[in-house]
Amino acid sequence: MTVDCVVYAADGLAEWTDLEAARDAEGTTWVRVTDPSDAELDDVADAYDIHALEVEDVRGDVRPKVEEFDEHTFVLVKAATLRRGDVAFAEELHAQQVGLFLGDDWLVTVEPERVASLDDVWERVHREEPRLASRGADFTAYRCLDRVVDDYFAILDDIEDDIEVVEDEVVDAAGDDVLERINDLRRDLLSVRRLLWPTREAVGVLARGDPEQIGEDAEKYYRDVYDHLVQLVDLVETYRDLTSGARDIYLNALSMSTNDAMKKLTVVATVILPLTFVAGVYGMNFEHMPELAWPYGYPAVMVGMAAMALILMAYFRREDWV
């Protein structure tokens, strides 16, 4: 577990170890909790009056949401990354819980699993741009949410590249692996959609300024995050349409390939059928068959069968079947 606490006051940024004292300190406090044990997370919850149900939501697999309490606002979102699967070689969407507890002048972020997006924000606030924290806890929370949402654009960019490759492969060669890749892309897009829709609803509450911890100056920043989420949802729907179109093209190409094979089999069967009939007639063991005694009977039958085959082949070629 890692518990980091910084307080930005008039004299600059300082690290604190006493969480309760940091809450009451003058300035903006940010407590970052990463990979905590149950007991350690309970200690942080006691120090900042975080309800047990909120702690349970952070630990569990709960959809993104916003809940308002007397002293703070609870925001739950999910950071997402594409990772190589444990069983398959294909990349899979991996979601990580991020809980933000926003007070009037303090922010507690809880990550059951370390999130790279918050690492970037922490580094900027802690090392490069400490003055960012001077704009208040609501602005610091906005920076965290904005960074988490920006990662979804990178995920969709990767998916878009995969869609372009699959579209080319569908036209060139309709193999079984192409359909599998299309289904993988549709599965990833569905997973992203399930994350984005509730996240958009949650950020919409913040963008309207409903929680009292969101100041008027910060509302416009949350509206910007909301606009990004609307754009992401539109992109997901567009990419789902593209994958549906690629799947339809694949199925049409497969159907055309099957039709071509059936055409060839039909030509072969049609040519062989009359030849088989003639061979069957003259293969019957009757005594009185005049053609059997004719010296030119065998050549005549062979020429006739060849003529029938050539006529049928010429017909099918004219109809562009062969």
From TrEMBL:
Subcellular location field: Cell membrane; Membrane
GO molecular function annotation: cobalt ion binding; cobalt ion transmembrane transporter activity; magnesium ion binding; magnesium ion transmembrane transporter activity
CDD domains on file: TmCorA-like_1
Keyword terms, alphabetized: Cell membrane, Coiled coil, Ion transport, Magnesium, Membrane, Transmembrane, Transmembrane helix, Transport
InterPro entries, per the entry: CorA_cytoplasmic_dom, CorA_TM1_TM2, Mg/Co-transport_prot_CorA, MgTranspt_CorA/ZnTranspt_ZntB
Coiled-coil regions listed: 149-176
PANTHER family with a match to the protein in the record: CORA FAMILY METAL ION TRANSPORTER (EUROFUNG) (PTHR46494)
Similarity field: Belongs to the CorA metal ion transporter (MIT) (TC 1.A.35) family.
Protein name: Magnesium transport protein CorA
Provenance organism: Halobacterium hubeiense
